[in-house]
Amino acid sequence: MRTPTRTRMTAVLSAEHRARLLGMAREVSIPEGTRIFEEGGRAERFWIIRSGTVTLDIRVPGQWHPVTIESLGFGELVGWSWLFPPYVWQLGAEAMTPVRAQEFDAQTVRMMMDADPAFGSAIGQWVGRVLAHRLQTARIRLLDLYAPHGSGSTAT
């Protein structure tokens, strides 16, 4: 299931808030097959994909490999756990292709959010939309994999 356009930064943040956030970005390249973060690790950074594909996954007891929950591409946020204490990744992520992304230092962004309530609210709304979508996607994926009759969803 692809992230709807309404959860992308460009659909949620004003031009001013986008510019402030992107002003803190660092361009990075992530090789194919790289584990970007592991479930349970410290969430100290986050990314917006410029090109390539990242999969989000979750460890399921009894399974050797993590189960893929969602594939992310251009313009999508990788990571939301950086915004909520205790700042621990709730999922894992892997670069499925070479990825170019804008990387952000989570502590710096949180400090800017605290210093400017309007900016903080806008970022919180954006990440909240992403989080709600990811929760629904994870629910559907896990039901499809493990429920006796699947989720009943026809979404792909």
UniProtKB/TrEMBL annotation:
Gene source species: Streptomyces lunaelactis
Cyclic nucleotide-binding domain ranges (all copies): 9-79
Database matches in SMART domains: cNMP
Classification of source organism: Bacteria, Bacillati, Actinomycetota, Actinomycetes, Kitasatosporales
Superkingdom of source: Bacteria
Cross-referenced Pfam families: cNMP_binding
Name of the protein: Cyclic nucleotide-binding domain-containing protein
